[in-house]
Amino acid sequence: MQILNHSLQFEALPGALAAYRATADEARLLSFASSVRQSGGRFVALWGSDERDRNAGFALHAAFGIAEGLALVTLPLPADNPEYPDLAEIFPAANRLQRATYDLLGIRSRGEDQRPWLRHANWPADYFPLRRDSDPAQQFETQNEEYAFVRVEGDGVHEIPVGPIHAGIIEPGHFRFSIVGEKVLRLEQRLGWTHKGIEKRFEQLPLSDGYKLAGRVSGDTTVAFSWAYCLAAETLTGCTPPPRALWLRALLLERERIANHLGDLGYLGNDAALSFGLAQFLRLKEDWQRLSDQLFGHRYLMDRIVPGGVACDLPPGGGALMLAQCESIEREVRILKDIYDEHAGLQDRFLTTGRLLPALAGELSISGLVGRASSQTWDLRGQNPIAPYDQLNVQVASHRNGDVAARVAVRFDEIFEALRATRQILVVLTDELCRDLIEPLPSARDGAFGVGWIEGWRGDVLVALEAGPDGSIRRCHCHDASSRIWPALEHAVMGNIVPDFPLINKSFNLSYSGQDV
Amino acid sequence: MYQLLKQIIVTGIKTEVPPVADEALRVIAQRLEKAMLDTLGRALVIRQIDAGSCNGCELEIHALGNAYYNLEGLGIRFAASPRHADLLLVTGPVAKNMEVALKRAYDATPEPKLVVAVGECGCGGGIFGESYASCGRVANVIPVDVAVPGCPPTPLALMQGILTAIGGK
To answer: Which one of A407, B37, B64, B69 has the largest count of C-beta atoms within 10 Å of its C-beta?
Structure first.
């Protein structure tokens, strides 16, 4: 089949997700990417694989989000001197992913920016961990790296280096601010500090166990990642989980969304000096997580979604407890929203701060809640819904101001919508639905490919999975929306004052671990 | 302002009883004298370091500050600099990329200092193990006094680990 009237021939992947795959040469990859860009589509992910043991070279894989769903394009590359054209010219979001792909696999884009991204001189420049002949257990001396930051020069310009260890309970990253007085002229991020070799580690795990590692790509997004992994595993084995398992998955995903939004709204108040907001929202979040623990046995719902279904059910009486909690949380969040909305000092800090304008958000392929606060109304739950979202009719929140206030407003809207969806799910779960929770995963064919794409609380997460022989994992790529959204933060802080950076950063609340994969 | 004050009053005080220390969490024998511990116990300053975690442990460390656990109510608070800290609370398998930063933070922390390793990864490398990119458990990089397992450890387990490190205050 054809997509966007392009000459590439796509085949539809089996399974719940609307995903299409094609193999292209360089020219057609570029022309397809341009078509996606012109049609208002977006860039989703990019990764590589080593195919030299199959009498081939390497391969580059790019994923694009279009109205029809997910389009995957593979570009075969030679074993010697594997290079590909620079996709960042069409989609700037590809830049860091191309650099990361070189660090891990040694396949190079022809782009101008060849600085390392995940490699911080702590393994040799000629060691590429994702090559099939690389020994994952090999250890190297760690060294200090000199990274070529872009310098801003001029009268009175100076730099503030921050990190990798930050001044709070935050993940590590390095921010290089170039400032004049209090005003930020430029921010450059240096990330990759928490890279812990996850994709190589997958290759040592059986396909049936990989969901645990996927669920630890970014701990705050464990439900979304484990669902994406399981969806990929189910696609490639031809497994359909029982309906009840799918409804439970959606319940867990919405619980994760609400938990994170509650925490963020508290910290956003705190970063604007309203510590009352932090105390109140963290109390609500704690109540929320205690019920998760009581009903499903884990405060963050880790390892509850497993290949073929779920590992937990709603216990008797759990539905009533959850409904009562939805009601009390909604009532309290509405009170707190009124307090936030009417607090002049808070709104003064939120409004017009850290703006990401819609046109730029579109150019940078920004999705997730940050995108929705800048008119990029991508939400897989609404646009490409997989069961049970096809019956939930999720209303996609959006805002067009792109400032901190807009990102706060989107979070409030999404809490209320997730609470509504939760109530709808609970009606179905307490109804006469078959009690089966898991469908055994059939054995996977060597080389079978599957993909999972789930709208987590922060944005879309993608897992591309290829089976190896005897139930092993040949290649697993995990992509968090953070990887694409981080560069937008560099733009959003420009022209703001340094003391507003923590507030702007919190309003994005991106994952470091998820981007460092 | 009326709504805000009303909300504070309606909420009331939520703080619960803290857990007691558990000597089983100790990795190496207590290195600090009792007099020192008695002083630290009422005014402990923690520097938290994410050395490569998935951020799950950070979520629970954040929860220590909520009204239910109210860690600050015990005289224990988090500082922005290791130079102000008595105790390092370290999460993650230590990513190779964080090894130098973690060692520097440890060296910058004045003696006497304590280290609590957090989570399955901090205690034993966890699911990530040791590889070209991971040094594994925290004790592979800096000396660890107390290790708190769990994925992630609950706020109560974290409190217990911290209280154990300072001798059960």
So the answer is: A407
> What residues does A310 pair with on adjacent strands?
A305
Q: Which of A29-43, A215-229, A381-395, B29-43 has the lowest average pLDDT?
A: B29-43
Q: How far apart are alpha carbons A166 and B81 in whole angstroms? A: 9
Instruction: Give pLDDT tens digits along chain B (169 positions).
Output: 899 999 999 999 999 999 988 888 888 887 777 777 777 767 899 999 999 999 999 999 999 999 999 999 999 999 999 999 999 999 999 999 999 999 999 999 999 899 999 999 999 999 999 999 999 999 999 999 999 999 999 999 999 999 999 886 4
What are the structure tokens assigned to A515, written together?
């981007």
Ranges of each domain in chain B: 19-165
Mark residue A365 as left, alpha or beta (left: phi above 0; alpha: psi -120 to 50; beta: remaining): left
Could you say which of A120, A198, A219 has the minimum Cβ distance to residue B56? A219
Q: Which of residues 3-42 of B touch A (CB under 8 A)?
A: 3-4, 7-8, 11, 14
Contact (CB<8Å) B92/A198: no
Cβ contacts below 8 Å, chain A against chain B, sum to: 172
Domains of chain A: 11-109 (3.30.460.80), 198-515 (1.10.645.10)
Residue partners of A101: CB distance under 8 A and separation at least 6: A46, A47, A48, A60, A107, A109
Nearest to A296 by CA among A349, A348, A257, A253: A253
CB A503 within 8 A of CB A489: no
Sort out which chain A residues have CB atoms less than 8 A from B93's CB and list them.
Answer: 196
Q: Which residue has the tokens 């970063």?
A: A271
- Spatial neighbors of B57 by CB under 8 A, at least 6 apart, are A219, B50, B91, B92, B118, B119, B121, B122, B152, B153
* Residues in chain B closer than 8 A to A198 (CB atoms): 128
Tokens of A240: 């359909």
ipTM above 0.90, yes or no: yes
Residues comprising chain B, all counted: 169
SS3 state at A110? coil
The fold of B19-165 is: Rossmann fold (3.40.50)
DSSP state of A497: B
- Residues in a beta bridge with A466: A449, A475
Rounded distance, CA A353 to CA B103, Å?
Answer: 37
Q: Which residues of B touch A167 (CB under 8 A)?
A: 80-81
Phi, psi of A241 (to 5 degrees): -65, 155
Contact yes or no for A219 and B152 at CB 8 A:
yes
Whole-angstrom distance, CA of residue A187 vs CA of residue A116: 18
